[in-house]
Fold these 2 entries.
Entry 1:
Amino acid sequence: MTRYGNEKEKMRSLLDPGPVPEIVEMRLREAYAALPERRPARPARPRLRVLRTALAAAALCVALPVTVLAATGELLPMIEGAIAFFRTDAATTLDSIQNTFEAYNAAVALEKTDAGVTFTVDNISVDDNFINLFGRMQATGLRAKLQEANTAGDGNAMFDGQMPDRWAFAYNDMPRPVVRVGDAVYGLDNSLNDSLNFYFQDDDTVCYARRILVNDTLPDSFAMQILPSYATRPAADGAGAEKYQTLLGTEGDWTLECGVDITSTRGAVKNAEPQVLTLGESKLDLKKFSVSPLGAVAVVDEHFTGGIGEGDVVQKDGYTSLEQYAVRDSAGNWMYWMRPSGWTVGEESLYEFVKPADGVDSLTFVPVLYSGTAQAQEALAPLEQGAKLEVTNLSGYTVESFVLDGRRLELTLAPYGPQAYGMVGLEIEPCGADGSPAYDEEQARTCIVDSYTDHATGNVVYTMDFYHDEPLLSSAVQLRYTKLADIALDEANAVTVPLA
């Protein structure tokens, strides 16, 4: 028995809706066969076995007023197979690790319709560290509804309707599901880290991906509930709080359920023992550092005291955050946690790291010391390939490539050196030859800045998109950024932790 209870018995009671209707099976087969190949040069790998229910796709967006479970009372293993979400020309931040997902996933074909909105989960990819969901949301006239909301003129529409549908949806309506396993709920660190992981399939349908970090350890098999949103409000009777779900601003119930078996991923998992590391005068309460097929995750208990509305948030008894340390693997390579990351759930902070190379068997945590004399200051670097943004005296980014047109700047930045606090929150401003911004205040009002980390390479992709009628960036020849205080590495107090 675990805190999840007797999982097999629980799942038998939860996951037995009866046989999947033949009409659903037929539509699934037809829809999957009709999917376009995104990369015809690389044929999709065959499945290791035939699933009882194939992958749901676009054709299933017709009204089906029932929840379709992946199989009758079955635990779905993570096996090799194609994922329809990636079979499109749309670009997302997860493309670089598509092969990873397609090596370990299950086609679940779950969907539920309520209040005129259909919520679907087509595939899941799960291991010790991540719960990844790939699915769709469908409603008649969905794109038109988003456009109407974005131009409502009620003071809530961002940028007076100039924001494209993509960003309006990302900020306002994109489903960010959470997952419940027993009493645990994963995905409460709802941030915009999935803001680019969706695309419009047609005027009625949006396809989404959700990547959720797991802050503890999952059992080998378990029942999983998927909720499209997770919110609370005061109960109607004034006693306590009640939970509710919304999609497209409408309340309803879109809870989906399935059984999962992640045994096939266990052999490739390496973990550090949970421990409190003493690093000089400070302590790091490392609850988890795990490398698995789907990536790497660290969880740190920062021992916060106080909270929002309770005065300052501080850390007690000398405990500190992971951001005060650089992490080096046994091959001598610096490891980088991703933007966005470091989100806090309770007292725990969750970090996703770029997965280290195979064969890494230990990690070294090196305290980063900050100079008291060299303070943060603005710096300029040329806008050219190979230019260095020296964030500290030991670390920063190299401009691998850039795209510049009248309304968009996209930078691909390769990190180097130990990751210092503040590197992840880098802010960049394109400037002219005289160092002045390449846009004015009015134009800046219609700018959206975003950045994400490539899950495979660790490179940071930094974008600035302007939605203004006039060309803007043609004068940009430099990049302004913040150079942090000088740092030093306290190797004498570094601690090496085995991965096994």
Entry 2:
Amino acid sequence: RIVGDDDGGKLFTPEEYEEYKRKVIPIRLKNRLYVSWRSPTGMDCKLVGPETQCFCTHRYKQHKTDYEEIPKDRPICVPCRVSRCQCQSYHYVPLNGTQPIRCRCKHFADQHSAAPGFSCNSCSKCSGFHSCFTCGCGQPTYAHETVVETKEERLAQGRPVGQDVPYAAMGGLTGFSSLAEGYMRLDDSGIGAPSTEFLESPVTAMDHPFLKAFQGPSTSAQTSSAIAGGGSNATTQVSQKERSEEDDMAYFERRYQER
């Protein structure tokens, strides 16, 4: 996981391995690149990992991911390192189950050239890969973009960066939740659990209707003490809720008997 394909298929000697770690690990800790597939709404629908395939059909770990100095130009290019591959920068394309998605020319993504423009190799009418395949977020594929950014750029947007790790081509993976698609994560940003201050803040009109229905004390300690005192607002609301459900059952039972 540390070396990846940098050994060229030949196992490093212990001395070569230590020298490799001494040279490469500080670069990865300092200049890690975070790669994601982002929707127009700002959601990271796919966080790219080492095994995630590119449009050129090669995986992210087969691209150049280690930079001694991060390029100043934006977007940052992550070219493929496979011999004779025309891919100039990593470009994520989703799958439809296990097979590639189709272009509007009816041919699969892997039937297109990996060179910029992504022209079709199977027909002459296609001006470039353009798919209307709908992502789980509800937006079409062509509306998404592959984003390559630094740690500082992600932090400025309030996005997760995870722990500093020495592993090769980690891309946008910051935890187990990164393996899920964006719409399936409980938190769209993936930043993780909210702070205690946020959880203990008062309920406002902008909160979920369930919370507004029970606008009692927000902390567990306050709730416990209030219930122990008897006659609390929370206890009253719960009892009213129970009575409301009983009234509903009686109403539907009466309607059923009338039929």
